[in-house]
Amino acid sequence: MKNLSCLALLASLAAPAHACGPYHDSWSGSDKAAHFGVSAALGVGASRLTDDTATAVGLALIPGLAKELYDAGQDCNRFSWKDMGWNAVGAYVGVRTGNWLLGPTGVSYIKAF
After folding, report:
1. How many CB atoms lie within 10 A of CB 60?
2. Of 6, 11, 22, 61, which has the highest C-beta tally within 10 A?
3. In the structure, what pLDDT confidence band is assigned to residue 28 with cuts at 50, 70 and 90?
4. pTM given for the model
5. CB-based contacts of 69: which residues, under 8 Å, 6+ apart?
């Protein structure tokens, strides 16, 4: 009976270890466009909060970082630096687009042409 209890305990501890398959995270994964798009939209919004590009990009990255930290705490998931890379590119493009489209005095793209 004692051996059966030990085997049951070991089986319950080992089950989560093999339940997850191998972790695959490619640069062109199915969620990368979502990371880029959401961060770009947040970047446009952040460009309205400050004139400093670095600060605006940092503000736009906060939700993406929070999501990756949340993912890191989930079973069968990890923090993805590739997702953060797409978040950073999207945030930068969004901030630059926001600065181009919506200058300090309103719509400014007309002045660029």
Report:
1. 29
2. 61
3. confident
4. 0.74
5. 79
